[in-house]
Structures are given as C-alpha cells and as structure tokens.
Task: structure prediction
Amino acid sequence: MPIPIRGPLAIPFRVFGITRSKMNPNICTICERSFRYVKKQQHISTTATILFADIRGYTNLSERMDPIAMSEIVSVFQDQCARAIWARDGIVNKQMGDGLMAIFNFPIKIERHAEAAVRAALEIQRRCGAALAELAASRGEAAADAPRVGVGVHTGQVEIGEFSTFRSDFTAIGGAVNLAARLESQAAPGEILVSAQTAEETADLMAGAAARSFALKGIERPVAARVLYASR
Amino acid sequence: MPIPIRGPLAIPFRVFGITRSKMNPNICTICERSFRYVKKQQHISTTATILFADIRGYTNLSERMDPIAMSEIVSVFQDQCARAIWARDGIVNKQMGDGLMAIFNFPIKIERHAEAAVRAALEIQRRCGAALAELAASRGEAAADAPRVGVGVHTGQVEIGEFSTFRSDFTAIGGAVNLAARLESQAAPGEILVSAQTAEETADLMAGAAARSFALKGIERPVAARVLYASR
Result:
C-alpha cells in the first residue's frame, strides 16, 4: 500500500514520524526507518554511485563577499543540485554548507546508477551555471565572474548504515565514498570528474571527454578519471 | 513551559513533529522549527565557535581495512565526539562519514562558547584516543596503530540559517566556518588546532600550547593558531 506523504491523508502517519524524506521528497521516511530497525547492527554492503559537488573557491569568496550574498549562493546551489539529483532518483544524503553528497542506488534501486549519476552531474552543472550567473547579474556583477561548481562521481562498493548510535540518519562510507570526495576536490570550476569505474558504465556519455590522472591524498596509486563539461 | 521530549508525555507532541533534536538530545526540535518559521528569509548573524573533527588518514585506512572495521571506527568516533560536544552544550550540526561539525552558542546560548568548544575538543581527543585504542586492541592490533583524530576550532561571525528551500536543517556558513574546517584539515593525528581568535578567549587553556602559522587553501594571509594536545 503506498503511504500518502503529501496532503491531509498524510497527517495520521506523522504521529509515527512517517513523512516525506528530506533526502528525496518522492520517498517517505519508512525507507530510512525500516532500514534502521532491520539493520541496526549490520551494515548493507552494496554497489552505488556517489556524487560530490561543491562551490569552487568558496572559502576565498567568503573572505570578500558579504554574508547575505554568500547565503544566496549556497541556497541556489543546494536547490539546483537537489532538483538535478532527484530527477534521476538519487538522494541528497549530506549537505555541508557549500557542498553536498548524493547516493545513487540506495534506497531507490536504479539499474543504471552510474548513468543516472553522470546525467545528474551534467544537469547540476547546467542548472548551477545558469542560476549562479543569473544571481551574479542580479547583483550587477559580470556573469563570467559568477562562482562555478565542481563535481566528482565514482562507482564502487560502499557500506550503508547508521554510524552513530545517537543519530538515526544513514549514510554511505568506505573507500569509494572517499575517492568520490577526493576527485571532486580536484575538479576545476565547471568540471565533472568521472572515475574510470563510472566511465566504464557510461561509455555513451564519455565521447570526447579527456582522460586525466590524479594523485589523490590518502590514495597510493594515481587515479584515472575522465573530465566532462556540460553544454550550456 | 518545558516540553516533554522523553517518555509517554512526549507522544502527543510528536504529531506536530516535536521530538528530541538529533543534534543535541537535551533540546527539542522547536529550537530548530521556531527558527525556521521566524527567520525563513533572513539569516541570523551571530558570533559562535565552530569545531570540526575527523579521523586522520581515513582514506588511507579505508584502502586497507575491511568495511566492517571501518564502520566500527566511524561509529566510535561519532559517538564519542557527540558525548563530548553535548556535555558542553554544543550541537552536532553535521556528520559527514568520518568527520563532523559542531556549533557552540546556537541554538543554546553559551556565555563562554570559545572555552566550551576548546574543552569539548580536549574531551574529544581524550575519549577518541581511549576508545579507538580499545577498539584496535579488541581486534588484536597495537593500540599505538589505532587511528587518531584531528580537531580545528575557530570563533567568529557566522551566518546561521537554512540554505536550502527543500530541506529544513539549519547550519552555519561563512568565512569563519571555512577557516575552522581548513584548520582541522591541517591538524596532525591527536592535535587540536585553535585559531588565534579562539585562543584569545581561552588564555587559561593555552598554557604551553605552541604557536604555529598555516597557509590555508583559499585564505590569503597565513593563519595563526595554537596547537593543543589532550593529556591521556
């Protein structure tokens, strides 16, 4: 039976804390809760695609821009990213100021999760590119000076669970998550760095994408990735 | 009137979504919600102390350790940090895998928030040092090889608000938040890096703490900080 997560029919469910998931408004918190009860001690090990995105040069920006302008930039970024991720059935698992982490393939199963994540990454760049340029223009700044976003995408084995006895929000951890985060940290403004593992699953989308190799902090071997740009 | 956030009296409140805050179990979600309704568009600008902590070398660890061991380490870390932060009336605002961000002075006002944060940082190092060594010993590893934690603390002006129209969890942003994060990223295992601004407010705790200067990504001038260690 589908659970009403919007409208008056949803009210009785709220007594039990069942409401729309903050991570994706198309699922309810049962997805998160059932997981909690069933898997309290164990963690699920699954293949997923992890996407990290952030505003490049944000620390530098925050040194010279006023706080209101900075918060507008963060809001536009978070909202545009969430729309792009949800449109591909991913969840916004973590928002950390000027950055976020999304999971594709949990709790919503996606057959082609690598492709879903890369398409979401392209959409993030398109949406953020347009919206942040518009915001800059509204402040009388040149659109070319608008902040840009960096994205990193990697597919691999992750541990999904709740890694805190106090707090019940699930997340993904493991080497694959860190690799996605490290890749993202190397993305230049406007770039999407796609790991070799993700690129292998998304050959159609990699036409013309340059190959680059990265020395990433904490990872011994160089990491091969493809560099992707969204067409405006 | 105090709101019951535990026990049977708390049940009717749950209908309205009023429950214990995940960020600090001693406050209820009204703290978060009242803020949301009153300050939908505006953000509060306030002085706060921001604390970042993470497991040093986690990416490297996750390359050679099995996922179950990794998730145990993360759980121990998150739980011990939360206890230390709550004991000083701070809130655990963000948990990101092997890291977290805490805020001192919002929503719980703390007169000496710099001191509360530094004391929490010392307690984090003590608790994590002991608990992670114990965990290593239980796996038959040398306690000296146990992972260690890095902490960064900075006091300054931050913007507090909800920087996403979809998701209603508040956070702090601004240059001061990024400085705390950047300091933390420079902390060696076992170290607490305390910014000059925080150190000024906590002179009593800085006796014998070495001064060091850091070139931080995105910040033009070198940043002065004190290096603190917890006694075991």
About this structure: Residues 88 and 119 of chain B are 8 Å apart (CA to CA). Chain B is about 35% helix and 25% strand.
